[in-house]
Amino acid sequence: MGTEKVKPVKLIMRRWGLFALLCLALCVAVPVLSQTDADPYANIPQSDDLEGFPQIGFPSALINVIIYAAFDDLGSAVFWQESYTPLVPRIQAGEILVSFVPLFGRGDLEGGRGAARAALCAGDQAQFWAYQDRLFSAVLAQGSSALAGDSLLTIGQALGLDMGQWTNCVTSDAPDGILTEAERAVTMEQFFTRTPFVKVGDAPSLTDIESLNFTIDQQLGVANDELAQDFITPTPDPEATPEAEVIELDALTGDSIAPPLTITLPDGWQMGSDILVLQDVDAIRNVPFTVYTGPVTGGTGTIVLLWGIPNLVIASARDALSGQPVQPDLYTDGTRLLRLAIVEEGCNVGTDLRQTYNVGGLSAVGTQFAAVDCPELPDTRGWFAGVRQFDLNFIFYVYSDPIEAVDSARPELETILESIRFVLPATATPAP
């Protein structure tokens, strides 16, 4: 295993701003990935909100959507089919966090209370949202018969629930407290008239999909503008000019700082470390990085490690907006640094859904990425995985050249990541 330095990294400076271009021996560029997961709720966090109502979405989402609906109401079933289902991609994308307030006795069908209890008990096994999908579909097709006990049992069996656990819940008083809280919550809503009733943020919204998307887009725009003020410097550059002047700068400090970890590399692999001077969204930072590269089946594999990176300042702003503590989101940080430090500016970059990976036996968060149509670099694809150890952030970007090699080489690259062992650093992290 050699320790040769990788090719220099360059920053491209324009008079109206700074953009990072990390051209390590292999640069990144990759095709947009399709989403073919049959389960629309796979890899999306499911929990309960403070009132105990079912909730789905990533805690980092800026917009909260609250749905008041009843299983005995045909209007709620139509809303679910025509308006809620088209919103699921926005949940998957991390844009919205959705809560469901379960009501009953709001429609013309019988059996609403039992259906609500059955769905809430499915939520004990992280299946509330899949259960309600099937239940509302059955209501549209069968009417009141869909809310009968045997139909509710059949849905649970089809989802593979632990039916013993589900039955114990349904026959207990556990769901009643949530239903009571739901009735209390709806009496507090000044503008509530009937189900379905939807709030986007703190404001009621019309329930058709066009109105919902418009309201969500509007609130996202406001939220993003507010967050942007946290890290946009108000003082203009006195030399600012719309004319592009390209100046190449040496973006490496020449300081080789090895990351606090051990890694097992295959024969023929090399590594190199340095510090990248990176224009982040809120400041210019010195980011330690290490590149591992070598032969894999079908081509050359590369792993780029960025470490010691602070979390995006948006995380603290989100805390202020939601009023709830939010853990640092390495998925968001990894996506931002993918575009800032890994792929060439001008690439068409696509990412898949949030996924979990194995780094040194630890659970790491990340996703697949791809970039194509780059100005100078070939198409490529791979994935990134972020993990936090010793109060330090580590994000690994994995890809190959040529682009097709990542499929055949994936087991080899995963084995390298699994071999990593983090070691408590003897000195403090380089200050950002």
What does this structure look like?
The protein is of the alpha+beta class. It has helices at 74-92, 112-123, 128-142, 149-158, 163-170, 174-187, 209-228, 314-322, 330-342, 405-418, and strands at residues 10-14, 17-21, 46-48, 54-56, 63-70, 96-103, 197-200, 203-205, 247-250, 261-262, 270-279, 284-296, 299-307, 348-351, 355-359, 362-372, 380-389, 392-401, 421-422. The chain folds into 2 domains: 10-33 and 250-422, Mog1/PsbP, alpha/beta/alpha sandwich (Protein Transport Mog1p, Chain A, 3-Layer(aba) Sandwich); 46-227, Glutaredoxin (3-Layer(aba) Sandwich), CATH 3.40.30.10. The strands form 4 sheets. Strands 11, 12, 13, 14, 15, 16, 17 and 18 form an 8-stranded antiparallel sheet that branches. Helix 2 (112-123) crosses helix 5 (163-170). It is elongated.
Summarize the structure.
The protein is of the alpha+beta class. 31% of the residues lie in helices and 28% in strands.
Secondary structure elements and pairings:
Layout: E1 10-14, E2 17-21, E3 46-48, E4 54-56, E5 63-70, H1 74-92, E6 96-103, H2 112-123, H3 128-142, H4 149-158, H5 163-170, H6 174-187, E7 197-200, E8 203-205, H7 209-228, E9 247-250, E10 261-262, E11 270-279, E12 284-296, E13 299-307, H8 314-322, H9 330-342, E14 348-351, E15 355-359, E16 362-372, E17 380-389, E18 392-401, H10 405-418, E19 421-422
Mean pLDDT: 79
Q: How many DSSP-defined strands?
A: 19
Dominant shape: elongated
Supply the number of helical segments. Answer: 10
Taken together, the total number of domains comes to 2
- Unreliable runs: 1-37, 230-250, 313-321, 428-432
Helix share, percent: 25-40%
